[in-house]
Write a structure and sequence with these properties.
alpha/beta, 14% strand, Rossmann fold, binds adenosine monophosphate, 13 strands, six-stranded parallel beta sheet, 39% helix, 431 residues
Length: 431
Amino acid sequence: MSFKQLGLTEALLNAVAEQGYTTPTPVQQKTIPLILDGKDILAGAQTGTGKTASFTLPLLQRLAENIDLHQKPRRIRALILTPTRELTMQVYESVKTYGKYLPLHAEAVVGGASIGMQTRNLRRGCDIVVATPGRLIDHVQQRNINLSSVDILVLDEADRMLDMGFLPDIRRIMALLPKQRQSLLFSATVADAVKALAAQLLNQPVEVNVAKQNATADNVTEQIYGIGREYKRELLSYLIGSNNWKQVLVFVRTRHGADRLEKQLISDGIRTAALHGDKTQGARNKALESFKNGKVAVLVATDIAARGLDIDDLPHVVNFDLPQVPEDYVHRIGRTGRAGSSGIALSLVSPEDAYMLADIEKFLKRQIPRVADTGYEPVSLKVMDQPKKHAPNKTTGKKDFRHSKKTEPRKVKAGQGEQRKPQREQRRGKR
Ligand code: AMP
């Protein structure tokens, strides 16, 4: 099937061809004709499936079909809500890319950027607003924005918006929109909370499911490295250095952990940047840009900061820390193996985190393959084998500090991992 067969106009077909897309992805094949037909949609599609184009292309076409070029200033006819600043900017870029041959104007509305500039841009008028809920509400309160002409509403990554506590904001925004409108809801996972939101928002929606729920992309090779917590950083540096990986997204649990790992990897000679919510928008953009253009090889990120990042052909994802929420495993893995390319997703799991791995595998309903020889002393990842951290030993009464052992950091330069291997082997031999 071609994009033309989906009913898209020449202006959009040209923009799509310029991106080098030849065949619509499954979610695009299913949703584009339905959206062009004016239907409400509840789509279960994760990042990496081509979901952004699946709503952006028909949305642009519908707006262009009913455009009044004499209307000044332009009225907002489409509102796209996303959970994070990064995702908003990416969707905004997609709107501009696909809409480059159409006389439509879009604005991005995100926190962390100058509200004055956004206010001026909004007051000049635009057809499409891509926004995070919080900053949009700020503009509503300041009467900078009028949402009473919105014909099409999109909620992108609705599950994450709910996780991030945006439900009250979404409700407030809904109250400002016309009842008569087309609404599209996209979500990686369609759990009960998303269904409940859909019931409030959508009018007789058509349900579209592309990825099997709880499934990860087929072209991603997943591996678990069972390893003592104190060796994780060393192993990570070794893997990056010895394989000469050029683009690795590394997930950590906390902002502080992201900063610490960034410093440690830099001290190991690996070009690294960190991305998390404590950084200013400018610093986040800079980190992302350096990662995209190859200035840094590693981006260490927390889940929220990394959510929705669209980095083409990202080959390696590493879970330095496992996610607390099993669904996030699926989101993280979605960073790699996008739109047909293959990817590798590694998780470094220490015995203390075995219970999280068990939760993830329960959620996935499958086991993730273990690496048999990690180069380190084998550890057990069976949940019942794990001693309670620091719990007194029943017979001796002494506390168990087995998992809090620290090692001296070692220097390793990117590309020099092979030289280190004998050292690792030696150390293993000593044990
Ligand atoms: P998304 O799921 O929207 O985050 O898109 C994932 C990636 O797939 C993005 O980098 C898009 O540029 C790319 N993409 C979207 N549609 C297609 C297509 N039909 N063919 C090839 N790549 C695509």
